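Fold these two proteins, one after the other.
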Amino acid sequence: MEYIIDSVEKTLSLGEKLGQLAQAGDVFCLTGDLGTGKTHISKGFAKGLGVNEEITSPTFNIVNEYHSGRIPLFHFDVYRVSDSDEIMAIGFDEYVFGKGATLIEWANYIEDILPEEFVHINIKKVPELGENYRKIRIKAFGGRFKNFEEKIL
């Protein structure tokens, strides 16, 4: 599934829809260059879960936990991680296979430890269309997410 989005508001809205669809144990992997909108997707995602806390990118903490929504949100930012062992040391498996939804910014940095089933969200700038335009591709992997892409519409 591919979307062309031309505003922060629409990016937040798409994230919100993803959050509404998320279930406990789901993993969502965000990739894209700096400034493409990964944190905006994350903020919308949290809203879709009903999280009422301020969402910030956990660049220096690696993971932020939010428990005010219908299920917990475990929000990772692995941009500054040097290797997958660092993530495993903080209990990555307990988050990913836990009772909440896991959202991972810069997931391409830890591909070797991602579960087999996840939703990949890739965001790219589309400068030829305008400054705020983004191409967002969503692809679900694994039987857990059968027909997931159609549910977004």
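Now the second one:
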Amino acid sequence: MSSKARTQSCSSCGDRLLVPYHARTIRCTRCRSLSSVHSFFPSLVFPKVLMNNNSYNSYSSSQRYNYDRITTQQSSIRGMEGDWPDSFPKVTGKKRALLIGISYSSKRYELKGTVNDVNCMKYFLVNHFKFPDDSFLILTEEEKDPHRIPTRRNILKAMQWLISGVSSGNSLFFHFSGHGSQRPCLGGDENDGFDETLCPLDYETEGMIVDDDINNILVRPLPTGVRLHAIVDSCHSGTVLDLPYLCKLSRTGSFQWEDQSNSSNTYKGTSGGLAISFSGCGDHQTSADTAALSNDVTTGAMTFCFIQAVISEPGLTYGRILSAMRTAIRDAGMGAPFSGPIAALFKKVFKCGIDQEPQLASSEKFDIHRMPFIL
């Protein structure tokens, strides 16, 4: 066991919990109850700063601790720029992609289809959008290189690699298949009061990756003429890039962009580039990991639907892709007939009672029925 963590029992169910270094409280992954951490670590002294124009000292000790941790994590992210491991690709072309699949092997929350998602996505990008073989950085538990294991630090480093040195004409692609979650937002920049998160392989000890961090790394630095497409197949992923606009699409095809900035005045856009994300579900929904394809190959429902939608009708608009994914899931839930692999997917998804509706978000508003999907 790491010297930076120890265990204690959950105060409700008694399950053993791995407690990160300096944690004040910890939430049980089984019963979701919150337990106070026994005082066995010396306290840290953090700088007193302002939160949302309110005095730092006016917040509870748990709020101050959470904010301190966020601030510390953001500082560590800024210090990770450049100096890439030798195993990271040295991309010279216009296209590059970061693909992450996390199985959480041997955990009770293990996923079966995430590595398949990554393999399918790479094949899709190479064969349908001509991404060069040397333009991919792939992080999974099957990688032999320690820098390509999807730990929190490695994922953040890989995100920095994805946007490093980009210029007008670059096309960037980010794909994540794994667990996602939420946590209360202390910054006041979320309409629903929750930050969305991605769960690295070591999130129990090192923490989750918060949407604010993803926005800081992947979205805000994008310069004019650079496009980023993100495909996020995880639970609670609707606004996981913290993009300014979320598309609200009706069944009749009418749409409007919902402003996500509320009253916080926190800028969530780019530096002139364009960032667009397709995500597996809304912020308060879950995504399916299911045996869907022939020969019982397990894959993420959203990843499979996205690839199928684009391949079936080349030259699709963003609106058509989103509508096709949603309609397929909705019709399957109502018992509409399907044939082939898509039928197997939806029968198994809805047999498990999965409720998900893919989402589209963007750094700027556009006509989703006119703008073609181009990588």
